[in-house]
Amino acid sequence: MDIVEKSWEVQDEIEERVKRIGKGKYGRVIKMARKPTNDEYIKTMTVTGLGMALIGGLGFLIYLIWSSFVH
Fold first, then answer.
1. What pLDDT shows up at residue 57?
2. What predicted TM-score, i.e. pTM, was given to this entire model?
3. 13 and 29, same domain (yes or no)
4. Residues 59 and 29 in one domain
5. From CA 65, how far away is CA 41, in angstroms rounded?
6. 41 and 71, same structural domain?
7. Domain range spanning residue 13?
8. Is the pLDDT of residue 21 over 80?
9. DSSP codes joined into one string, 31-65
10. Rounded percentage of the chain residues whose pLDDT exceeds 90
11. 41 and 29 in one domain?
12. Which of 1, 7, 13, 45 is the most exposed place for a label (fewest CB within 10 A)?
């Protein structure tokens, strides 16, 4: 099989996958998905940032406690 035939097979496979995007298990979810509003985005970023800061602070506190016992 030469390179041209192989490239056509790959192209056909990609096109078939693209055709099936909206029809699989997750098709309904993809169709219902939408871009968040600015308010939703800001709230999501705030909650995510607070969660990261909380987990990072907790990890640092554990590190400080652990290092005080080791020395």
1. 98
2. 0.54
3. yes
4. no
5. 36
6. yes
7. 1-33
8. no
9. HH--PPPHHHHHHHHHHHHHHHHHHHHHHHHHHHH
10. 48
11. no
12. 1
